[in-house]
Every structure is written in structure tokens, then in C-alpha cells.
Design goal:
By secondary structure, the chain is of the alpha/beta class. The protein has 16 helices and 13 strands.
């Protein structure tokens, strides 16, 4: 059996009236049944709880204050899950609700419990419906997105394919709404600066993610050896077509075989709170990418942002392209003083001598993007 994780955005699963789009869910369930017969198991990562809760609370637009967002999530979650249950039951399929937060992937014990539960549900033929626990998880509502959650779940279950169903049919060379010459990219094998710039920052009116969040998720999945596809969520046969090997939307193709990423590194890679950026020289960049080395202070050329020891920071090459992310072993003040200095200068400086004997970011606390 193979496993497909499909993420469905709010603008896809929720209708204009703020209620679950039941015809859409019915065709999704029909695809799930067909996939099961073809040897695939489906895990659904679904947005839409907050959007479903708004009309029930008499709210016409998404609120900005946290208690109201959490209240909407609480009300809308039961409505959304009930709609999934009805649609899948009509196809003879059982669904379950799994609520996760990033804490469940950052802690090893919780990670293993979540993985074991999802794996057993899949083995029993259940289609888990996964969402962030928005009712109690403040950070996830304010900064989170289910593209990130889909990547986390895909790594948790060792998925064979992650599908991001959106209101656009893939990644374009430019915003197709603004540039008539924009063309769809059927395949991406490396995410470079051009790809990231083409993603823009567009979001729907009811969701929290945009194309850039999908690109970030793709970078992690490609590092984990898991292919990802971004496609039009309203195509009634897209999942079955993908399972059959057809080209649909944009496929992000990993260059390496599937491998497990430690839960701590997953949190570092997919956590939204990045406190700064360390720009490194060519030698350090090469050592990180090719050799999996730790980052030494002597390789740092510039420091951006304010952060303390233990905060997550990006690591960029001399061109400014982010190649890795990790937890800093020193504050921004220390690394700013050390930036551009030789090892001898760092070792001879009383304020920096401690930094000379340890890495700025240890390789065990870092993920290098493929």
C-alpha cells in the first residue's frame, strides 16, 4: 500500500456561503474509494474550520483577535468533520479527526505517538482528517498554514506523495493574474531564487497560506525525498490521475531517495518563527551543503536580525539565497562581533574566545535544504 497526503485549502473545501462544499467532499470521497482499490491510502489535511465557524457566529469576515478566531475554530471544526464523515461514509469509508500542533512534532515522544496513531489508522483502512488544533494553539492560528502541516504529516507517515489542492492549478513563472505571459511549470527539480520570487505572496480571503508557503513546504519534502504536487483543488479527478502517473499541476521532484528527518529538525525547518539570517562565505556554504558540516563563526560574513542563543535563524549563501536553517549557538551580538574575523582574531578576542571553541550552529541543530 502507498500513502498519499492531500491538503485541501479553505477556499476549496468551504463554499461561498461559509458552509462545507458537500458536492466537493462527495467527489473527494469517491476518489478516495477509487484510490483504495488501486492500492493507495489517503490522509487528508483540511483547512476550513475557522471559515465554517464564521457564519455560525454571525461574522461576515475573518476576525483578527485571537479569542474570536479560536471560538470560530471550535464551532466550525465539528461542522467540517461532520461533512467529511457523511461524504466518506456514503462510499463505505471511515474517517477520523486528528488535531496536531507543532509541539507534537518537536518532542520526540509526542512525535512517535502521533506517527504510530496515524500509521495504525492507515493500516485499519481509515482516512484520517488532520487539522491544526486551532482552538488552543495560538501560534498556529497567527502564523501557521496547512501547507506546513501537510509537509509535517507527510514526513510523519512516510508518504509516497503529497498533494496540495489549491485555487490555482500550479506554480507559474509569474502571477498569471497580472502577467499574460506567465506559464505553468509542470516540474520543478530545484528551488532557487527564481522559483521563490515567482511564488509571490498571494493569499485567498479565507485562508492563511499563499504560494510561498507551498514552496517552503516543497523544499522540506524534497529534502526528505517525498514528491509534492500543487494542483487545482476543484479538478474532480486530480488525485486518481496523479496515482495513475499522469501529469497534473506542478510536481516538485526530490533529487534524493526518501529519508527520515529527525523531529527536531522538522520543527527547525517548518517553524515559522525565524529570528534572523546569517550570511556565510562560499567556503562555509560549500561545507554545509556538500559535507553536512557545522557552521563555524569564522564562516559568518554578515548578521541580520536580533536573536538569542537557541533561536532559529536562516543561513544564506553570499548571494542571499537561504540554504539552511538552524538553532543559533550564540546571540546576534556575539556573531556580529565575530563576522568577517579570522579564527585567530576570534580566539584572541576576550569577548569572542568562547565562540572559537564551539560552532555558531551545530549540524545536529540544522537542516540543509536540498
Amino acid at each position: 500500500m502507498r500513502t498519499m497526503v492531500v491538503k485541501i485549502g479553505s477556499s476549496t473545501v468551504v463554499g461561498a456561503d461559509g458552509k462545507p462544499d458537500r458536492p466537493y467532499l462527495e467527489q473527494l470521497a469517491a476518489q478516495a474509494a477509487e484510490l483504495q482499490h488501486a492500492g493507495w491510502r489517503l490522509v487528508v489535511v483540511s483547512s476550513g474550520a475557522i471559515a465554517c465557524g464564521l457564519p455560525q457566529l454571525g461574522l461576515k469576515r475573518r476576525p483578527k483577535d485571537m479569542p474570536t478566531l479560536q471560538a470560530a475554530a471550535s464551532v466550525g471544526q465539528s461542522t467540517l468533520v461532520s461533512a467529511y464523515e457523511d461524504a466518506f461514509a456514503a462510499e463505505g469509508l471511515t474517517t477520523s479527526l486528528v488535531l496536531l500542533t507543532r509541539h507534537d512534532t518537536a518532542q520526540r515522544a509526542a512525535y512517535l505517538h502521533a506517527r504510530d496513531t496515524l500509521t495504525r489508522l492507515i493500516e485499519l483502512g481509515v482516512c484520517p482528517v488532520v487539522n491544526e488544533n486551532d482552538t488552543v494553539s495560538v501560534e498556529q492560528i497567527r502564523f501557521g498554514d496547512n501547507d506546513t502541516l501537510a509537509a509535517l504529516v507527510s514526513c510523519l507517515v512516510g508518504a509516497d506523495l503529497c498533494v496540495i489542492c489549491s485555487d490555482i492549478d500550479g506554480l507559474y513563472t509569474a502571477n498569471p493574474g497580472e502577467d499574460p505571459n506567465a506559464r505553468l511549470l509542470p516540474e520543478v527539480r530545484r528551488i532557487d531564487r527564481t522559483i521563490i520570487e515567482s511564488a509571490g505572496d498571494a493569499t485567498s480571503g479565507v485562508g492563511t497560506g499563499g504560494m510561498i508557503t507551498k514552496i517552503r513546504a516543497a523544499r522540506v519534502l524534497m529534502t526528505a525525498g517525498i514528491p509534492m504536487v500543487v494542483c487545482d483543488g476543484h479538478d474532480s479527478r486530480q488525485l486518481v490521475r496523479l496515482a495513475a502517473g499522469e501529469e497534473v499541476g506542478t510536481r516538485f521532484v526530490p533529487t534524493a531517495a526518501k529519508r527520515e528527518i529527525a523531529p527536531r529538525k522538522l520543527w527547525i525547518a517548518l517553524g515559522d518563527t525565524v529570528h534572523g539570517t546569517l550570511t556565510v562565505d562560499d567556503g562555509a556554504a560549500d561545507a554545509l551543503v556538500r559535507n553536512g558540516s557545522s557552521l563555524l563563526a569564522v564562516g559568518v560574513r554578515a548578521v541580520e536580525g536580533s536573536f538569542e542563543r537557541g533561536d532559529v535563524v536562516n543561513i544564506a549563501d553570499p548571494s542571499g539565497f537561504v540554504i539552511a536553517r538552524g538553532r543559533a549557538e550564540a546571540s546576534s551580538d556575539e556573531l556580529t562581533l565575530a563576522a568577517g574575523r579570522s579564527q585567530a582574531e576570534i580566539n584572541g578576542n576576550r569577548l569572542l574566545s568562547d565562540l572559537a571553541g564551539r560552532p555558531a550552529i551545530h549540524r545536529d541543530e540544522m537542516i540543509v535544504f536540498g
